[in-house]
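On clarity, I found the account of how folds are encoded harder to follow than it need be. Since the whole study asks how a given chain folds, the encoding of that fold should be made plain. For illustration, here is how one protein appears when written out as sequence plus C-alpha cells:

:::
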Amino acid sequence: MIYVEDQLVKVNGVVLPGLVKSIEVKESAQIDEQEVEGSAAKPKQAVGYEDAKITVELILDDTPSRTKYEALAAVRAIFRKPGQTVPQPIPIVSEDTAKHGIDKVLFKGFSHKAEAKKEQITVSLEFWEYIPQTIKASKAGSSSSKSSGSSSGGTSSSGLSADYTNYLETSRGSSPVARDTMSGVASAAVGMVAKMLPE
C-alpha cells in the first residue's frame, strides 16, 4: 500500500499528520421548550446559536520519516503542551471549517484506538468553535449620585449637594482627641529643641 499523508488540516500552525478519514462540522441553534399546563404541545423559543463542533478522524501509519506513535505524539503536543494547565484558543486552517467561518477553536477532546490486527492507529479529535466574549464596562453609581443630590438644592461637580459642600468648607474645629494628640506632639517637639540648645 502506498501511504501518502494529507495536507488538509492545519491546527495551531502544525499540519495534522496522517490521512484525514473524515471531518465533520456541526452547527446548531439553541431552542428552549416551554411547558404549558393543560397542553400536550410544547411551544419552542429560539434563543441563539451554539458554538460549532468539529470532529476530525485521522489514520496514522508508519512512514519513512516517522512512526505512527511519533505522529500520535505530535498530535498530542497540539492538544496539550508540556506544562499547559488550561486549553488555549488556537487557529485552525481547513477548507471545511473556513466554509463555516471558523478560524479559532478550543481543542476539546483527543482519543486514539489501536486494533490488534491492524498496523494503523485511528485518532479522533474534537474541536469547539472559539468566540471571544466582549464585556462592556459602565460607570457604577453615576445615576444614584445624581438622584441623591437632586433633593437638596443642586449638586456640585463632585456629585455632592451644594449645602453639604458648604458645610465641608467651613472651619469646624478639630476633635478633642486630635487636639490633645497634636498638643502632645507640639510639647514634645519643644522639649527636644530645648535639650539641644546650650544652657
User: Anything to note?
Assistant: The longest strand covers residues 104-114. The first helix runs from residue 68 to 79.
